[in-house]
Amino acid sequence: MTPMEKVRSADRALLRIIGQAVAEAERRSGAWIACRPGCTQCCIGPFPVTQLDALRLRHGLEELAGSDPERARRVRERARAAWQRLAPLFPGDPATGVLAGDDAAQEEFFERTDSEPCPALDPQTGLCELYAFRPVTCRVFGPAVRSAGDVLGHCELCYEGATPEQIAACEVDFDPDGLEAVVLEELEKATGASGLTIIAFALAPAAGETAPGEGR
Question: I need a labelling partner for 86 at 20 to 30 A (CA). Which of 167, 169, 191, 199 fits?
Fold first, then answer.
């Protein structure tokens, strides 16, 4: 098994763990979960994603190109157009798509671009074209979850009428063993890729189609 095959295998294990945790959080939450197909509030505005997320998204786009070239073309076009709009404001290296470590600059960037739709979002259906390959943030946002003891924010549409104590009772740690950090370390060893980026860069043809060192 090559280093990249090991990364992909570990990523699949990570996604299984996350999926099980989120399902448990949703089970505990019941009718408080408002998330439904076509609800796109959390699909508007860029946000940081890991290099593992970026790798998974690009792989998903390759899969889509094989099964539905026209849909894949539209995703690429939206990503290219989005990156062209975002690049002049990007607080990092526009050549690598890696965000700089300046928290204030990042916050300003995300605030200024909070109306930018995700390139993977189909504007006609309101569905994610790369749902099976979506970033971890997309997978865990909505229900009450925590990671490494830190409680993460849930969707503001969820838990209407619930008390803080009721919400806390629904929380589940989605990565209790810290597997994501381990896989990211393995990815960096295999490709040299590190740092955070955004989905538009990951899927833009100039970046996604020529990303070095990934292999298949």
Answer: 191
- Is the pLDDT confidence value at 215 over 80? no
Length of the chain: 216
b/e map of 50-77 (b: 16 or more CB within 10 Å)? bbbbbbbbbbbbeebbeeeeeebebbbe
Residue at 212: amino acid letter = P
Among 130, 115, 11, smallest CA distance to 76 is for: 130
Quick: pLDDT tens for 41-81: 999 999 999 999 999 999 999 999 999 999 999 999 999 99
Task: Compute how many other C-beta atoms are within 10 angstroms of the C-beta atom of residue 8.
Answer: 20
How many Å apart are CA 53 and CA 170, to the nearest integer? 26
- Is 120 buried (19+), middle (13-18) or exposed (0-12) by CB count in 10 A? buried
Encoded tokens for 186: 């393995």
CA–CA distances in Å: residue 187 to residues 203, 208, 214:
18, 16, 9
Q: What is the value of pTM for the model shown?
A: 0.92
Measured in whole angstroms, the distance separating CA 13 from the mean position of its chain's CA atoms is 16
Query: Comparing C-alpha atoms, which of 216, 149, 180, 151 is closest to residue 15?
Result: 180
DSSP symbol at 52: H
By CB atoms closer than 10 A (0-12, 13-18, 19+), residue 49 is buried
Structural tokens at position 173: 């740690």
